[in-house]
Write a structure and sequence with these properties.
With 503 residues, this protein is an alpha/beta fold. The protein folds into two domains: 350 residues, Aldolase class I (TIM Barrel); 110 residues, CBS-domain (Roll). The protein has 15 helices and 24 strands. 45% of the residues are buried. The C terminus is likely disordered.
Length: 503
């Protein structure tokens, strides 16, 4: 006979936190959001620690190298999507690891034989007015010159004018060498009254651009997540099919942590993947696994060697696994069950395996609830897809700016490896949708706002760190009427669009 759970599965919206005693020390500035990313033994520290409990989802529409750098600067970690070629994913990892704080890889490059028309088109595409002129138009080509808005006037020049005829040539430029430090670059910028300093190697090839504004902004990231070589920390997604080829390439590229990307983690495929990694790399390569929704699934992955375990099936905003296949579990209930299993496993073995809550986050307060329920960190897709740094296009839909957002199980992504059960190498049916999310601006501004809410709520609960929150939090189930009461009601809002979307 089938097993039946006695209690219904609940979502985050069905819970509220009950305030606890707040001492005079409970102020947001004193709150630490530091949390382990990978497993560790009792009495030891985790090899990788997050400064904020946020990681980005392993999705084409969310996690590329651009977002990885932006999130690392705020103290979190991105998992670059694995539904691309091994070479392309490894290159994204290399891009993140080679990125120097304050040193920007140029995304606006052109050849000397290009025209003013090409310059204007590139500016329209990137939004950047500074364009590097390289011999072959590539990011690391030999630097020939630079074009800024001061070098041309559209009203007085023919659009067919070649770039080499109006650019500032390299012989008239001040440049830095590859061993130039950020402080030295800043000194050069101020001494020569520059806005931009190109950095070139010994052969004259372009390496980076240092902008006056970027040096200033670098000082604004006190929680930057860096490795022991002062490089940004970055993760990457893998699957259970080509791991023997993909993992070595990602490790060689410098990846800090991996995660098996799958819709259902309680499978022999994940055990075999973890075994292969442990057999070839021991514990030097950190790899998370998932997703699961109960204690049994957690213990299976923990015993198989996972460095962290992801929780959640069907709770994502673009995921239709539940309605397609009828499997899953309410995210709050699943998380509570798995976190209880994690604590029991820790008591038995002395090994703490962090839990990642993946899916079900609609509002910012849901994040605090998930952390109070035991999650060590959160994997977010829709949340990050809205920002400038995500890889998707910003489009105008009926007068409102939106960002494209699609699931890995959609026909657009066709990430069959994520849903693979050992059959034919194709996506048999969709488990995700193609959609839009409201554009929200920069990652930094939005993440700082969200973290401010989390820190404030933690103070209301008398907690100054995530361990205290898990220990001291009091949670209550709420009725449907209470949920309605929790928002604006019985009034006519002046701006009906204000509460239309959770930020």
């Amino acid at each position: 006979m089938a097993f039946y759970y006695d209690e219904p599965a609940h979502t985050f919206s069905e819970y509220l936190l009950v305030p606890g005693y707040s001492s005079s020390k409970c102020i947001p500035d004193n709150v630490s959001l530091q949390t382990p990313l990978v497993k560790f033994k009792k009495g030891e520290e985790a090899a990788l620690t997050l400064n904020i409990p946020m990681v980005s989802a392993i999705m084409q529409s969310v996690s590329n190298d651009t977002l990885a750098v932006a999130l690392s600067r705020e103290g979190g970690c991105s998992f670059i999507y694995g539904s691309q070629t091994i070479e392309d994913e490894a290159q994204m990892v290399r891009n993140v690891k080679s990125y120097r704080a304050g040193f920007v890889t140029s995304d606006s490059n052109i050849t000397p034989d290009s025209t003013l028309k090409d310059i204007l088109a590139l500016k329209e595409k990137t939004g950047h007015s500074t364009v590097a002129v390289t011999s072959d138009g590539t990011v690391n080509g030999r630097l020939e010159g630079i074009v800024t808005s001061r070098d041309y006037r559209v009203s007085r020049m023919d659009l067919s004018t070649q770039v080499k005829d109006f650019m500032t040539p390299i012989k008239q430029m001040v440049v830095g060498k590859k061993d130039t430090t950020l402080q030295q670059a800043n000194d050069i910028i101020w001494d020569h009254k520059l806005n931009t300093l190109p950095i070139i190697d010994n052969e004259g090839r372009l390496l980076y651009m240092v902008f006056r504004k970027d040096y200033v902004s670098h000082k604004e990231y006190p929680l930057e997540l860096l490795d022991n070589k002062k490089r940004h920390v970055v993760g990457a997604g893998i699957n259970t099919r080509d791991y023997a080829e993909r993992v070595p390439a990602l490790v060689e590229a410098g990846v800090d942590v991996l995660c098996i990307d799958s819709s259902e983690g309680y499978s022999e495929w994940q055990r075999l993947t973890l075994k292969w990694i442990r057999d070839h790399y021991g514990d030097t390569v950190k790899v998370g696994a998932g997703n699961v929704v109960d204690a049994e699934g957690f213990r299976f992955l923990a015993e198989s060697g996972a460095d962290f375990v992801k929780v959640g099936i069907g709770g994502g905003s673009i995921c239709i696994t539940r309605e397609t296949k009828g499997i899953g579990r309410g995210q709050a209930t699943a998380l509570i069950d798995v976190c209880k299993a994690r604590d029991e496993y820790y008591k038995e073995t002395g090994i703490y395996v962090p839990v990642c809550s993946d899916g079900g986050i609609v509002y910012d307060y849901h994040m605090t609830l998930a952390l109070a329920m035991g999650a060590d960190f959160l994997m977010l897709g829709r949340y990050f897809a809205r920002f400038d740094e995500s890889p998707t296009d910003k489009v105008n839909i009926n007068g409102s700016y939106m960002k494209e957002y699609w699931g890995e199980g959609s026909n657009r992504a066709r990430n069959w490896q994520r849903y693979d059960l050992g059959g034919s190498q194709k996506l048999s049916f969709e488990e995700g949708v193609d959609s839009y999310v409201p554009y929200a601006g920069s990652l930094k501004d939005n993440v700082n706002l969200t973290l401010a809410k989390i820190r404030s709520t933690m103070c209301n609960c008398g907690a100054l760190n995530l361990g205290e929150l898990r220990k001291n939090a009091k949670l209550t189930l709420v009725s449907s009427t209470s949920i309605v009461e929790g928002g604006a009601h019985d009034v006519l809002l002046k701006d009906s669009a204000v509460a239309s979307y959770a930020k």
